[in-house]
Design brief:
6 helices; mainly alpha
């Protein structure tokens, strides 16, 4: 139930911050045109919350943080990380939507194709590349 409420709060926050609007995101990347700093403000807010919350979560007992998943097991920057980051950034800039807001927006039907393509991409990665490139 806590995970659902956290996800719901995150979804509402993305919607209220305008991050489900591709024009807002693409406006952030348009530094030589009509630059929109709204995404930068959302990022700063997220970083501030994380700077406070993350050390507290990691400071919990082993039992209390047993449900925390997805922490990176390595800290080195390799080709796989750089290529994946570049692909993510290119897609984000071209479409104006990243995965979180896309899932929030799918109810309205505007990002259904994007979310479908994202799911296919995740399946292809798991099926053909997971473990093979590490």
């Amino acid at each position: 139930m806590h995970a659902f409420l956290a996800g719901l709060l995150f979804a509402v926050g993305l919607g209220l911050a305008g991050m489900t609007n591709p024009d807002t995101v693409q406006g952030f990347f348009d530094v030589f045109g009509t630059w929109n700093p709204q995404l930068a403000l959302v990022m700063v807010g997220a970083i501030a919350v994380n700077l406070v919350a993350f050390p507290k979560i990691l400071g919990r007992s082993r039992r209390a943080k047993a449900h925390v998943q997805g922490l990176p097991s390595q800290s080195r920057i390799d080709r796989r990380l750089v290529v994946g980051s570049a692909l993510f950034g290119l897609g984000w800039g071209a479409v104006g939507v990243c995965p979180g807001p896309a899932i929030v927006s799918v109810g309205g039907g505007t990002t259904l194709a994007f979310v479908g393509a994202m799911m296919v991409g995740m399946w292809v990665h798991r099926r053909f590349f997971e473990g093979a490139l590490s």
